[in-house]
Amino acid sequence: MKRPLVVALPKGRVHEEAVAVFARAGFDLHPTLGETRKLVHDVAGLRVLVVRPADVPVYVEHGAADLGVAGRDVLDEDPRDLYQPLDLGIGACRLAVAEPEDRPVDERALIHVRIATKYPHLTRRWLEARGLFAEIIKLSGSIELGPLTGLADRIVDLVSSGQTLAANRLREVEVIMKVTSCLVVNRASLKLRGDEIDAIVRRLRQAVV
Ligand code: PRP
User: Fold this and answer.
1) Could you tell me the distance, in angstroms and rounded to a whole number, from the CA of residue 112 to the centre of ligand 1?
2) For the chain, is the Cβ count within 10 Å smaller at the N or the C terminus?
3) Closest ligand 1 atom number to CA of residue 160
């Protein structure tokens, strides 16, 4: 008997929306939301891995998962060889530049600007496109702390409701890109198990609202 197809879902805020879209496509993955310590779930005829969002493309590119759900932010920050058949329209947010409300950066002044971010590649690309110079300081989370502690002058981070920025007295300066999550597929799996994968993609396409 064939092994079940392996699906990598991102832990955290997009997990629930991914489960909702899979449910509309006829795959009940709700059990994956319950036990947060359990990392592998055999449900709805699939094997579901719940991994850190930035790791989803890694699992799928290497074939440890056949399919996955990954944000445009993650896919553009660290491009990988993946088939990307479908924008699922979930996890909508934006990658934006922000700075303290009371300490705006003067982009024309020749001062040393430091930007804290989880996205050094996308930040570099934005700086180059704008003809700006800045030092990029890579952090792994709680980016908003950067300007509050004097570590950085600005941040580049995901903004969804805007509540985190407001709570930390930061204001959005510019949107770098709009972000949603996409279905990603391992290229070898697509060749070897194309019919099964096509069927899932078709059902998900109908489930996207
Ligand atoms: C994300 C992001 C912002 C926040 C934005 O962080 O990095 O901090 O959510 O959401 P909001 O605009 O709705 O407030 P997350 O909670 O994923 O954790 P992290 O800070 O560890 O990255």
Assistant:
1) 26
2) N
3) 12
Instruction: Give the number of C-alpha atoms closer than 13 A to the C-alpha of residue 84, restricted to the C-beta side.
Output: 17
In this structure, the residue with its CA closest to atom 2 of ligand 1 is 158
**Average pLDDT over the chain, rounded to whole?**
96
Q: How confident is residue 108, by pLDDT bands cut at 50, 70 and 90?
A: confident
Decide: pTM greater than 0.90: yes
Instruction: Ligand 1, residue 12: give the atom nearest the CA.
Output: 17
Q: Which of 123, 158, 161 maximizes ligand 1 atoms within 8 Å of its Cβ, making it the mutation to test the pocket?
A: 158
Q: Which of 123, 138, 160 to mutate to test the pocket of ligand 1 (most atoms within 8 A of CB)?
A: 160
Residue type, 38: K
pLDDT digits (tens, 9 = 90+) for 26-54: 999 999 998 778 889 999 999 999 999 99
Q: Which of 14, 142, 161 is nearest to 73 (CA)?
A: 14
